[in-house]
């Protein structure tokens, strides 16, 4: 008999995190006169600032920073890392965030001096390698999305959305269309309506039907000559494929509207189906989701935008191009303008390209298939206790509702999320999408093993069973207890606003 | 790259069996046949990681990084400062690198506390009480500052100095079209100071750079007085290294201070990822874009951190939000905080003194040798324009072949009025006396 295979890192993969005692701030560790090291000797005599700068602008006293030894600095930040969950530590099934493992090869690529230490304003003769990286990645992205051209400049998905919407606006202006609104399903990410407003359009919310999909008949009622376009993610945020996308596209195109694809869910369909083939005109990709670049605790991301051929002339500049004599930088003829100080989050997209080259076309297609397999497997495993909000086969993520658990026991989605932290797992996304009551949105990604999925399912089920006991259920409002901090008082933070050490009373 | 996904064939088969499916393709039955890609992606086959790394080494070999073989005197918004080993080592720890946004504060105290400390440091640099958890880069911080000012004043007219980085001005123009902000350019005079317009009615904000794109100090108090008289906000784009010697923007009356944080220990990285610094007054906190970390307590009564005033943000306010920012540059913010803590009070000041002294050594030397026209205006920190007779971009090319990235040519989209045919030159604490001497020698030769 073969021994049972253990899930990676044991059941509670966050247990190495040390709880209990808060870490003092770096300022609390400061002792006047300490320092980490000396600066280089330039051989140049230090001059009096007043001889060079207007005296009325000179600081009266040195700016105070922490004064610590390097040993204390390293101790402090290392202890902070012990108070932080991460993908490298354990399972992170945060729906709509695609927290897959980030292969280490990209770290090595990012550290190559010819990648890391290049000045962005160096003449093009000195940045040929970088421009080739840009053009090659654009080729990968246009092939994957079924588009004609791409810009890598947007620094994150939200900036990609706004860039795409400004391209939409430029298109309508060029055709003399007078458009005022952009349609958005009620299941959309919050960035979508916020971006629409910033692009100068009015966001109009379109209700989903009982199957969690855009209701094409209802949508028809919203479509008129003032519709500039629609923003969709497909699969949508409840993890379902909008099968009637061709009909939706025809409807929007009938009023010369454009279809915007929010790439937040691209991980489901790489090498399986392409937004361009579905009728989308503008697509952003989140490289920090689908293409495995690390998310850095909240950023950097990278949100390239790919467009259909008729929109290429509106892309932002500067724009890397291939020429007969190597690579150059140009501005598209009707460019919406610049969207980033330089070329976007370049090292992030170099990482993404390294990942894509490592996987190759077939590997990328397998990546999506296994992401969908993992999601469906986990969904089925927990279904007896956590009913899916929508029954059909899901894509790379799914939404369950704990409305019944809440009704029976008073335990909310938030409590279940916190209880999971005590089991060593990161929590799923909670209370999103807004159209599902007491939602847990779960995205396991393709990089988790079956053993990890089984362990997670077991913990979730055990938590659900605990809610059936009223004492145990009551204690769940106090979870978590094994984590570096116990439940954090969010209301107090807003009421007594302290956002820097200097604001403490 | 096998190994990225852990599934064995046997596991795939049994997981499919568990789902009563016979193939992976059946997972996609909800996609209409006509929409399925009927072929493989037209992309190269996957390769081993060592081959991919070698491929990137080959690509990198066709770039010229700044190094001893290409001494960097270029700035223009991206500066070649020293990066300390501890910054790199700690900033590369995978708990920081591979975490997500701190949505579950109980397991995200590391990132949250690091951001809280970062906010403290940047508030000291900027002299303003409230600092957010970062924006994409300097230009995006400027865009958000303009949006804030227009939302606060319910006006749309913005006067922006030509001394603000031209690329940032372009970005501001791009993102002003949607909300309908009217950006008006106030040109620089020949000493590099902004000529503000006489008519300042209905102005939402004045935007001035400190030091400006040319590296020169302008009269911030003049802009402050204009803003106060017009009922407008003052937005100051500052340099977070210059504040080591100069008064903070807040001390000079800025309502919003924005900066590019790259000089605080972030590699040149071909322009990104960088770090947008954004600070404002407590009074304006409800208009703050992006995430904000606050201090609070956990149920045990221990100090803890959490993102706060979340009701401002896009995921709650949706179409009514004044900013769509979600992902930011947290990791770069942590790098900057580590670098600033490595420097400490005295190291930070020394960097400023070394930049200033190096710049003065170079400009004295250029003047002595009669190289071009050194233009220092009312004072320069570590960067200045050199007006020359030859084409600046040609000079950059010629100097590159001699081992110098000589500066940024103020041409085309980077042109500044009254500074035609000029090269923008920067000196950081990395440049030694002998390097500056050889730079001047090479420049003399090239300009001959």
* Overall average pLDDT of chain A: 94
Major protein interface: A-B, 204 and 211 residues
Query: Which regions of chain B have little confidence, pLDDT < 50, spanning 5+ residues?
Result: none
CATH topology of the largest domain in chain A: Aspartate Aminotransferase, domain 2
Question: Low-confidence runs of chain A (pLDDT<50, min 5 residues)?
Answer: 12-16
Multimeric status of the protein: heterodimer
Q: Roughly how many Å apart are the termini of chain A?
A: 64 Å
The overall strand count of chain A is: 12
CATH architecture of the largest domain in chain A: 3-Layer(aba) Sandwich
What portion of the residues of chain A fall into strands of 2 or more residues?
5-15%
Q: What is the structural class of chain A?
A: alpha/beta
Q: Which term fits the overall shape of chain B?
A: globular
Describe the structure.
The complex is a heterodimer of chains A (505) and B (448). By secondary structure, chain A is an alpha/beta fold. Chain A has helices spanning 70-81, 105-111, 113-116, 128-145, 157-175, 191-198, 216-222, 245-253, 275-278, 287-290, 346-382, 403-409, 413-422, 450-466, 470-475, 490-495; strands at residues 149-151, 181-185, 202-206, 227-232, 258-263, 282-285, 305-307, 319-323, 326-330, 398-401, 429-430, 439-442. In chain A, helix 4 packs parallel to helix 11 (346-382), helix 5 (157-175) packs across helix 6 (191-198) and helix 11 crosses helix 14. Chain B has two domains: 71-82 and 345-447, Aspartate Aminotransferase, domain 1 (Alpha-Beta Complex); 85-337, Aspartate Aminotransferase, domain 2 (3-Layer(aba) Sandwich), CATH 3.40.640. Helices cover 35% and strands 14% of the residues of chain B. Chain B has helices spanning 9-18, 49-60, 85-91, 94-97, 109-126, 138-153, 166-176, 220-230, 314-317, 330-369, 392-401, 433-447, and strands at 71-72, 130-131, 157-161, 182-186, 203-210, 233-238, 256-260, 276-280, 293-297, 303-307, 373-374, 383-387, 404-405, 408-409, 422-426. In chain B, the strands form four sheets. In chain B, strands 2-8-7-6-5-3-4 form a seven-stranded mixed β-sheet, with helices on both faces. The mean pLDDT of chain B is 96. Chains A and B meet through helix 1, helix 2, helix 3, helix 4 and helix 5 of A and helix 1, helix 2, helix 3, helix 4 and helix 5 of B.
């Amino acid at each position: 008999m073969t021994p049972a295979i253990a899930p990676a890192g044991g059941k509670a993969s966050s247990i190495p995190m040390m709880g209990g005692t808060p870490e003092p701030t770096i300022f609390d560790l400061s002792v006047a006169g300490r320092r980490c090291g000396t600066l280089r000797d330039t051989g140049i005599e230090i001059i009096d600032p007043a001889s060079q700068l207007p005296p009325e602008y000179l600081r009266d006293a040195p700016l105070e920073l922490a004064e610590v030894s390097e040993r204390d600095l390293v101790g402090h930040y290392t202890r902070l890392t012990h108070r932080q969950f991460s993908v490298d530590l354990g399972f992170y099934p945060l729906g709509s965030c695609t927290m897959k493992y980030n292969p280490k090869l990209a770290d090595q690529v990012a550290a190559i001096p010819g990648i890391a230490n290049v000045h962005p304003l160096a003449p093009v003769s000195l940045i040929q390698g970088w421009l080739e990286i840009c053009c090659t990645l654009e080729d990968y992205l246009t092939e994957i999305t079924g588009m004609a051209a791409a810009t890598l400049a947007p620094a994150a998905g939200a900036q990609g959305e706004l860039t795409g919407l400004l391209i939409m606006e430029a298109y309508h202006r060029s055709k003399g269309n007078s458009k005022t609104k952009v349609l958005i399903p009620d299941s959309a990410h919050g960035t979508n309506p916020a971006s629409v407003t910033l692009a100068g359009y009015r966001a109009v919310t379109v209700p989903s039907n009982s199957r969690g999909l855009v209701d094409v008949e209802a949508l028809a009622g919203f479509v008129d000559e003032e519709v500039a376009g629609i923003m969709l993610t497909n699969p949508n945020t409840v993890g379902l494929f909008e099968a009637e996308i061709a009909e939706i596209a025809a409807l929007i195109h009938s009023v010369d509207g454009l279809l915007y694809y929010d790439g937040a869910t691209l991980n489901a369909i790489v090498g399986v189906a392409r937004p361009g083939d579905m009728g989308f005109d503008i697509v952003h990709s989140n490289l920090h989701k689908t293409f495995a670049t690390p998310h850095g605790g909240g950023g950097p991301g990278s949100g390239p935008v790919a467009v259909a051929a008729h929109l290429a002339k509106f892309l932002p500049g500067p724009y890397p191009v291939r020429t007969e004599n190597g690579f150059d930088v140009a501005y598209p003829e009707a460019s919406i303008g610049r969207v980033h100080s330089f070329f976007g989050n370049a090292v992030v997209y170099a990482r993404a390209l390294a990942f894509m080259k490592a996987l190759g076309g077939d590997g990328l297609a397998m990546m999506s298939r296994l992401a969908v397999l993992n999601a469906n497997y986990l969904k089925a495993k927990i279904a007896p206790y956590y009913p899916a909000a929508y029954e059909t086969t899901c894509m790379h993520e799914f939404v369950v509702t704990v409305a019944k658990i809440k009704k029976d026991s008073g335990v909310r989605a938030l409590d279940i999320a916190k209880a999971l932290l005590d089991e060593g797992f990161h929590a799923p996304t909670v209370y999103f999408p807004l159209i599902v009551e007491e939602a847990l949105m779960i995205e396991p990604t393709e990089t988790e093993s079956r053993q990890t999925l089984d362990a997670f399912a077991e913990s979730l089920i055990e938590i659900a069973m605990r809610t059936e006991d009223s004492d145990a259920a009551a204690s769940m409002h106090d979870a978590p207890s094994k984590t570096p901090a116990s439940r954090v008082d969010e209301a107090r933070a807003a009421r007594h606003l302290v956002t820097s050490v200097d604001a403490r009373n | 790259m096998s190994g990225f996904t852990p599934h064995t064939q046997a596991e795939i088969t049994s997981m499919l069996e568990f789902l009563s499916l016979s193939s992976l393709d059946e997972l996609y039955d909800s996609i209409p046949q006509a929409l399925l890609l009927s072929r493989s992606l037209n992309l190269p086959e996957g390769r081993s990681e060592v081959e991919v790394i070698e491929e990137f080494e080959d690509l990198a070999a066709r770039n010229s990084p700044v190094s001893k073989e290409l001494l960097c005197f270029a700035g223009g918004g991206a500066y070649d400062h020293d990066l300390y080993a501890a910054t790199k080592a700690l900033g590369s720890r995978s708990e920081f690198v591979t975490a997500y946004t701190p949505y579950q504060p109980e397991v995200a105290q590391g990132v949250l506390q690091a951001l809280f400390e970062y906010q403290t440091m940047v508030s000291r640099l900027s002299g303003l009480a409230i600092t957010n958890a970062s924006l994409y880069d300097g230009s995006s911080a400027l865009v958000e500052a303009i949006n804030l000012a227009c939302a606060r004043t319910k006006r749309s007219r913005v006067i922006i100095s030509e001394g603000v980085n031209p690329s940032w001005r372009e970005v501001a123009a791009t993102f002003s079209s949607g909300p309908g902000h009217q950006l008006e350019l106030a040109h620089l005079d020949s000493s590099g100071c902004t000529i503000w317009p006489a008519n300042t009615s209905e102005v939402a904000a004045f935007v001035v750079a400190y030091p400006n794109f040319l590296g020169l100090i302008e009269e911030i108090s003049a802009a402050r007085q204009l803003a106060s008289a017009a009922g407008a906000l003052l937005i100051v784009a500052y340099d977070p290294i210059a504040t080591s010697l100069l008064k903070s923007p807040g001390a000079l009356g800025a309502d919003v201070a924005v900066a590019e944080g790259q000089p605080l220990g972030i590699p040149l990285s071909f322009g990104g990822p960088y770090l947008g610094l954004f600070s404002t007054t407590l009074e304006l906190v409800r208009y703050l874009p992006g995430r904000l970390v606050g201090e609070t307590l956990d149920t045990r009564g221990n100090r803890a951190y959490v993102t706060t005033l979340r009701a401002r943000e896009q995921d709650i306010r949706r179409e009514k939000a004044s900013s769509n920012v979600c992902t930011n540059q947290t990791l770069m913010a942590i790098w900057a905080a580590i670098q600033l803590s490595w420097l400490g009070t005295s190291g930070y000041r020394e960097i400023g003194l070394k930049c200033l002294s190096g710049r003065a050594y170079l400009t004295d030397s250029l003047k002595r040798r009669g190289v071009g026209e050194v233009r220092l205006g009312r004072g320069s920190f570590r960067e200045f324009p050199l007006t020359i007779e030859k084409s600046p971009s040609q000079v950059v090319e010629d100097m590159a072949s001699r081992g110098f990235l000589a500066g940024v040519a103020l041409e085309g989209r980077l042109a500044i009025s009254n500074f035609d045919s000029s090269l923008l030159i920067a000196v950081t604490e990395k440049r030694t006396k002998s390097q500056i001497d050889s730079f001047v020698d090479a420049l003399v030769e090239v300009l001959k």
